[in-house]
Amino acid sequence: MGIFFAKKKQSSRITDQDKAILQLKQTRDKLKQYQKRIEQSIEKDKEIAKKLLKNNQKDRALLLLRKKKFQEQVLIKADGQLENVERMVHDIEFAQVEVKVIDGLKFGNDALKKLHAILSIDEIEKIMDETKEGIEKQQEINIILTGALSDEDEENIEAELDDLMTKDTKEVAPESDDEILLPDVPTDKNSNKEVSSNKLQEPVALES
């Protein structure tokens, strides 16, 4: 029972590329948080500068506007850095996909070479010839066992049958058109008398 339950846990192998991607994503998240703080600070300084101007505190309002301008420049730089980080993450992830594709192609190519080594062209032709010979031999055995006839034999048999039918037709005698009429057998005394009278009248007819 222990064999079925003692399965080894497959340890997930973390590569250097995975670590780099994780670090870049963490940097990206920090940059986004920093941008959000800068944007909030710019909006806050802008509102304060408006209030200072209303209170005739021009110098302090000017100072806040300069601070705001500096923060806007920092925000632009942060946007550029964020774009670079995201591009780097994309490039690394795509490179990992390319490596997997290349590894798969290499594995497939090696497997194909091994198959070609096992089955060479000459060996395949030999197997096909042996298979063809085996099929032909089996057909011959089937013919012997079942008494099957070839197409030529069947044609000869048909020709012989036609010849016999032609000869039989010629040997049958044609029926005569003139039927031989036999006298009826008398069944009573009257008929016998008629036959006798006919016989007596025949010479008379001949003499006349």
UniProtKB/TrEMBL annotation:
UniProt record similarity statement: Belongs to the SNF7 family.
Protein's recorded name: Charged multivesicular body protein 6-A
UniProt-listed InterPro entries: Snf7_fam
A GO-annotated cellular component: multivesicular body
Biased composition (Basic and acidic residues): 164-173
Coiled-coil ranges (or none): 17-44
Gene source species: Ceratosolen solmsi marchali
Biological classification of the source: Eukaryota, Metazoa, Ecdysozoa, Arthropoda, Hexapoda
Renumbered residue ranges of the record's region Disordered: 162-208
Pfam families: Snf7
Cellular compartments annotated: Endosome membrane
Keyword terms: Coiled coil, Endosome, Membrane, Protein transport, Transport
